[in-house]
Amino acid sequence: MNNNFAKAREKMVKTQLIPRGIKDQRVIEAMQKVPRHQFVPQELVHEAYNDYPLSIGHNQTISQPYIVAFMTEALDLKGDEKVLEIGTGSGYQTAILAELCKQVYTVERIKELLENAKKRLDKMGYNNIMFKAFDGTLGWDEYKPYDAIIVTAGAPNIPYPLVEQLKEGGRLVIPIGDRFMQNLIKVTKKGKTIEQKSLGGCRFVDLIGVYGWKDKHP
Ligand code: SAH
């Protein structure tokens, strides 16, 4: 069984990530290593390595593998960084980050998702992750500044606390747009200004909070 999953994972890397341009060897290795099937609901285990997002309950999703790899690569992680993640969800992206940096701080607004992710990641032996149930549009002030921040839900605008909590030269990757389509934006902090680059279109669930969408879908 585990052998089959390892094969599915290898196929995912070879057919979904590398041909689409993922180059960072460390990202490729992390995607090859982390058992994605352990982050999806039992009834979807056989679809865990397919090329699309999956439902994780609470109207939320675990992102498509390629998107996880693409966003992670854009953070330019070398191994010694402090990274803030907004939108823990299943904890899959959290595990990928934990493989690639020194310390991960992850924030999720739905307590039950956070607790399940924490249990899962603890069981897998990750000891460089801190968890918080909170509105991540406010960031996590206590441990700032961060070398990199990743937001895995779509926002109408860039929440300013996240820019404020970024280190000089730090990178923020966040989907910005309306509730149906967003652009993946990479922000780099340069003194008092920011540099912004669009990485392309994407579609995420809503980032809900003080500096995000005000409420759920009607
Ligand atoms: N990276 C996750 C994707 C989860 S979907 C994974 O790989 O599974 C996006 C998540 O963002 C959802 O779990 C949602 O509850 C969470 N979210 C939305 N708004 C948030 C906010 N303001 N603060 C923290 N988490 C938020």
Which CATH class applies here? Alpha Beta
Low-confidence stretches: none
Task: Count the beta strands.
Answer: 9
Structure class: alpha/beta
Written description of the protein model:
With 218 residues, the chain is of the alpha/beta class. It has one domain (2-202): 3-Layer(aba) Sandwich (Rossmann fold). The protein has helices spanning 2-17, 25-33, 65-74, 92-100, 111-123, 160-164; strands at residues 54-57, 60-62, 82-86, 103-108, 129-133, 146-151, 166-177, 182-190, 193-202. The strands form two sheets. It has a seven-stranded mixed sheet with strand order 5-4-3-6-7-8-9. α4 links the parallel β3 (82-86) and β4 (103-108). The model has no long low-confidence stretch (mean pLDDT 96). The protein binds S-adenosyl-L-homocysteine. S-adenosyl-L-homocysteine binds at residues 56, 60-63, 86-87, 89-90, 92-93, 107-110, 113, 135-137, 152-153, 205, 207-209, 212.
List the helices and strands and how they pair.
Elements: H1 2-17, H2 25-33, E1 54-57, E2 60-62, H3 65-74, E3 82-86, H4 92-100, E4 103-108, H5 111-123, E5 129-133, E6 146-151, H6 160-164, E7 166-177, E8 182-190, E9 193-202
Parallel strand pairs: 3-4, 3-6, 4-5, 6-7
Antiparallel strand pairs: 1-2, 7-8, 8-9
Bound molecules: S-adenosyl-L-homocysteine.
Compact summary:
The protein is of the alpha/beta class.
Defining key terms:
single chain; about 220 residues; alpha/beta; Rossmann fold; seven-stranded mixed sheet; two-stranded antiparallel ribbon; 6 helices; about 30% strand
